[in-house]
Design brief:
By secondary structure, this protein is an alpha+beta fold. The chain has one domain. 49% of the residues lie in helices and 27% in strands. The chain starts with a helix and ends in a 5-residue tail after the last strand. The model has no long low-confidence stretch (mean pLDDT 84).
Length: 147
């Protein structure tokens, strides 16, 4: 064993400077190379994690918007199903709550229609984190169609 070690040490020192440098450079990575590679890898992983978090947040917000839209549409459909002269369709603003969301709907008589046409605006609000998201739908109701 000692003989093998001695022969490899002798071989190493018998090489000229250029050959030794070449041998040393092929023997592994330098500390600087490892640090640079680690830094690049860390930056890449942080970026991927950040994108993942943002994607999750946007997905949650999209689900909330869909729920709000469904509840708002349901409210509009239930108002349209009422008779034109229903108390719920008199001019004014009314509070609503549906599916854990709150909002309001406004009924107004369309100008120049002699009371034959009503504007109905339904708005519902929901919270996404600290932001309020609102969905607003509008429709017209005619006395000739909903007599």
């Amino acid at each position: 064993m000692l003989r093998l070690f001695q022969s490899s040490v002798c071989k190493f020192f018998s090489l000229d400077r250029r050959e030794r440098r070449s041998l040393n450079s092929r023997s592994g990575f330098s500390l600087v190379e490892v640090m640079v590679a680690s830094t690049i890898m860390a930056v890449a992983m942080i970026s991927v994690f950040s994108l993942s978090l943002q994607s999750s947040k946007l997905g949650d917000e999209a689900r909330l918007r869909m729920q709000l839209l469904q509840h708002t549409r349901s409210e509009v459909e239930s108002l349209i199903a009422l008779p034109y002269t229903s108390a719920a369709l008199q001019e004014g603003t009314y509070e609503i709550s549906r599916g854990g969301f709150t909002g309001e709907y406004t009924v107004s008589v369309r100008a120049g229609t002699d009371g034959d046409c009503k504007d109905i605006v339904v708005r519902m609000d929901g919270l996404s984190g600290s932001d309020t998201i609102s969905i607003e739908l509008r429709t017209l109701m005619s006395s000739t169609l909903h007599g």
